[in-house]
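Human: If only I could read backbone structure tokens as easily as an amino acid sequence. Underneath my words sits a plain record pairing an amino acid chain with its backbone structure tokens. Take your time, and here it is.
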Amino acid sequence: MATLGARVASPGAGGLVYSRRWPELGTLYRVVRENVRTLYAAAQDGFAGATLPPFVRQEFEGYLDCGLRQHLAYDGKLLSAVGRIFVDSVLGFYRRRMRAEGVTDGRSGAVTVVQRCNSDLKLSPHLHVILVDGLC
């Protein structure tokens, strides 16, 4: 489980390091969170003659929800697509690294398991993925 400021190095990633960005702790997130209701009210009152398209409101709400969690819980095709994009991205990275090392016929693989709740049984769809970064 990631903790604040967690940095995870992958031995097979050539020294690359993943660092979670924590957008909910940043200034932009705070400004949006503190002012989005004012924006909605102003648009509803016709401020400057502007309207707020529904997709704009959806994007703000999605940003404040920190992602697609609710959508993923109820949309199996979306969850599948997110999982596929993630796995394809990592396996693509592995293929590029193998080619760079002169391995032209190497193969990687992945096993993905979907878990729909966290340990206290709250809705929290997420993926557990095992990736083979060697040659199969």
Notes: The longest helix spans residues 76-100.
